[in-house]
């Protein structure tokens, strides 16, 4: 019942607040290990969150984990998504805009693995080749937290405002934003916790 009202009872990443600003924070995150999948939403009937079920199967949410041990891995929060570069229809690799053929936007979804996995090789190897285990180095983000459903229009507004605030306050933006969602879909919208995170120097 608690999850309906937004209670987050799973492991979340540790971070240090470097600076609290008007409406956002600058945070430093230590290195972590993530399971991720990059896909064209059309592979999942145009569902941008289609990769969730693939990652959930890897950690064993739906029964036997789809990894080589097989080892059940605890769910963590948040689920991280980023809209990626375009992928050329003629190539199986992610490319910068412009590759050959008609290009489509990709989505990368990540589950951060529990802190016990310090290196990529510590995590069980996925049996689904679409799942990649990678190490994320320490990183610094400008972060704005908001409740409600993370609809595209809302996220777009948050990104625009945060970008403007970071630039105004003299921070150098070093990459594209990521969206972090902390609750399952059945959590009531007013109780959902979301964050837009923009990497900075």
UniProtKB/TrEMBL annotation:
InterPro entries assigned to the protein according to its UniProt record, in alphabetical order: Reg_factor_effector_dom_sf, SOUL_heme-bd
Domain of life: Eukaryota
Pfam assignment, any one: SOUL
Family of the protein in this entry: Belongs to the HEBP family.
Listed PANTHER family: HEME-BINDING PROTEIN-RELATED, SOUL HEME-BINDING FAMILY PROTEIN
Protein name: SOUL heme-binding protein
């Amino acid at each position: 019942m608690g999850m309906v009202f937004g209670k987050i009872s799973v492991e979340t990443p540790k971070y240090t607040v470097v600076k609290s600003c008007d409406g956002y924070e600058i945070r430093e995150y230590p290195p972590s290990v993530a399971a991720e999948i990059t896909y064209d939403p059309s592979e999942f009937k145009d569902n941008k969150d289609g990769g969730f079920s693939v990652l959930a199967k890897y950690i064993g949410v739906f029964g036997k984990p789809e990894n080589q041990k097989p080892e059940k891995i605890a769910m963590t929060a948040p689920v991280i998504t980023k809209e990626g570069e375009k992928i050329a229809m003629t190539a199986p690799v992610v490319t910068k805009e412009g590759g050959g053929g008609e290009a489509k936007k990709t989505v990368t979804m990540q589950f951060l693995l529990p802190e016990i996995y310090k290196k990529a090789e510590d995590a069980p190897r996925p049996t689904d080749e679409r799942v990649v285990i990678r190490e994320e180095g320490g990183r610094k983000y400008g972060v704005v937290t908001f409740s409600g459903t993370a609809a595209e229009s809302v996220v777009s507004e948050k990104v625009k405002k945060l970008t403007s605030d970071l630039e105004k306050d003299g921070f150098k933006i070093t990459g594209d934003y990521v969206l972090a969602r902390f609750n399952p879909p059945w959590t009531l919208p007013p109780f959902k916790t979301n964050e837009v995170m923009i990497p900075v120097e």
